[in-house]
């Protein structure tokens, strides 16, 4: 389970997350929706420990991500501790972020070999399986720039999965793609959502996709969850006026 307890994040005088409490049970797929600037990406960046909360704690499967225990005190986590817990979390970004100087196969094997210490042959075997899953077996010997944006994003998904994460964070992964490339990436993610037990936390403006894969949709406004529920309820019968306004603008 992912658990945020009273997490506050400020940038200067701007409070982006305001004592946020949030739980995501293992294996569930949760989509975060809400107006621009409501703090959705900040949540994912906190989980990747790219940001630190000003207050509050984040836990993954009973272990603190943001803190560690020293005796009976809770202190901010060292980088080493955060890295250790974060190994269980993979993230796919809007801008693929592949290593441009490495071929596709090596993009995928690099972290398993150097971070997990996996044997090179085993890492390559796993990478080939994942390239098959994302429909790119024929491209393993190419450099990222020789691929379309949609193909690069599918490599990025394979790369995240190669670490066998318990949690996959998806941050507007189709926003930078040409419209005709979006469906291929979403199909791969649907497949992963429906065939694995990975926990997914997804920020997306693709509401049909959110409807297909989500167990739960959380509506954010001004750094708080204002309502959450199954997609069929949030998309068809939201309780909150802000949710209705937001959905009528995006649907
Ligand atoms: N590193 C930063 N420094 C200063 N302000 C930041 C930083 N990162 C985010 N913010 C601000 O925090 C607020 C929340 O940003 P965040 O990216 O989490 O929103 P979001 O809900 O994901 O929005 P969008 O849907 O537009 O991506 C915004 O007002 C943003 O400008």
Describe this entry's structure for a reader.
With 251 residues, the protein is of the alpha/beta class. It has a domain at 96-163. Helices cover 38% and strands 27% of the residues. It has helices spanning 40-47, 79-86, 104-114, 120-133, 149-162, 179-195, 207-213, 231-236, 241-250, and strands spanning 2-11, 14-24, 29-33, 55-60, 63-64, 67-70, 73-76, 89-92, 167-171, 199-203, 216-221, 224-229. The strands form 3 sheets. The chain has a 6-stranded mixed sheet, sandwiched between helices. A 4-stranded antiparallel sheet has the order 2-1-4-5, covered by helices on one side. It has a two-stranded antiparallel sheet with strand order 6-7. Helix 3 (104-114) packs across helix 4 (120-133), helix 4 crosses helix 5 (149-162) and helix 5 runs parallel beside helix 6 (179-195). The chain is globular. The two termini are 30 Å apart. The mean pLDDT is 94.
Q: Write down the overall mean pLDDT.
A: 94
Q: Please outline the major beta sheet.
A: 6 strands, mixed
Low-confidence stretches: none
Spatial order of strands in the largest sheet:
8-9-10-3-11-12
Number of helices: 9
- Distance between termini? 30 Å
Helix and strand element order: EEEHEEEEHEHHHEHEHEEHH
Determine the fraction of residues in helical runs and give it as a percent range.
25-40%
Shape: globular
**Ions, cofactors and other bound molecules:** adenosine-5'-triphosphate
Rg to the nearest angstrom?
18 Å
Strand segment count: 12
Look at the helices and sheets and give the structural class: alpha/beta
**Share of β-strand residues:** 25-35%
């Amino acid at each position: 389970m992912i658990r945020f307890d009273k997490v506050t994040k400020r940038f200067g005088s701007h409070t982006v997350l305001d004592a946020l409490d949030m739980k995501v049970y293992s294996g569930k797929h949760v989509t975060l929706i809400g107006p621009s600037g409501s703090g959705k990406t900040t949540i994912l960046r906190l989980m990747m420990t790219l940001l630190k909360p000003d207050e509050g704690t984040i836990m993954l499967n009973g272990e603190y991500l943001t803190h560690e225990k020293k005796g009976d005190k809770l202190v901010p986590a060292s980088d080493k501790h955060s890295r250790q817990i974060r190994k269980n979390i993979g993230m796919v970004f809007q801008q693929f972020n592949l290593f441009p100087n490495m071929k596709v196969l090596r993009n995928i094997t690099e972290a398993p070999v150097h971070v997990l210490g996996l044997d090179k042959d085993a890492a390559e075997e796993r990478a080939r399986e994942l390239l098959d899953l994302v429909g790119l077996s024929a491209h393993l010997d190419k450099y990222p720039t020789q691929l379309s944006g949609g193909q690069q994003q599918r490599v990025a998904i394979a790369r995240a999965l190669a670490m066998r994460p318990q949690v996959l964070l998806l941050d507007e992964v189709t926003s930078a793609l040409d419209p005709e490339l979006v469906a291929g990436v979403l199909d791969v993610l649907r497949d992963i959502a429906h065939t694995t037990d990975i926990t997914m936390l997804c920020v997306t403006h693709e509401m049909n996709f959110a409807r297909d894969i989500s167990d739960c949709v959380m509506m954010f406004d001004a750094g708080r969850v204002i309502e959450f529920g199954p997609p069929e309820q949030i998309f068809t019968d939201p309780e909150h006026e802000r949710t209705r306004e937001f959905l009528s603008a995006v649907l």
